[in-house]
Amino acid sequence: MSKYFILDCLGYITLKLFGPLVRALPAGLSLSLGRLLGFLFYSIDLKHRAQAYFNIKTAFGNKLSAQELKRILKGFYLAFGQNLIEVLLIPLVDERYFKKYISIEGQKNIWEGFKAGEGVIFAGMHEGSWEFSNIISANLGFNFNMFAREQRYPRLNTLLNSYRRHKGCKLIQRENQLRQLIGVLKANESIGMTVDQGGKSGTQVKFFGRLASMPSGAVRIALKYGASLIPVFYTRVNGPYIKLFIEPPVRIKKTGDLEKDIQTNLQEIVHIFERYISKYPQEYLWTYRIWKYSKEKNILVLSDGKAGHLRQAEALTGVIGSYLNDKGIKADIDTVEIKFKNKFCLSDDTRERLARLAPDIVISCGSASAIVNHRISKENRAKSIAIMRPSVLSMRRFSLVIMPEHDRPPKRKNVTVIAGALNSIGPDYLAKNRERLNKEAQVRKELVLGILLGGDTRNFKLSSLDLRRIFFQVKAFLDNADGELLITTSRRTPAQVEALVEEEVKSYARCKSAVIANRKNLDYAVGGILGLSKIVLVSPESISMISEAASSGNYVVVFYPGKNKISAKHERFLQSMAQKGYIHLCRAGDTLNVLNRLWQERPQVQVKVLDNNAKLREGIKNIL
Question: Is residue 415 within 8 Å of 395, Cβ to Cβ?
Answer without folding.
Answer: yes
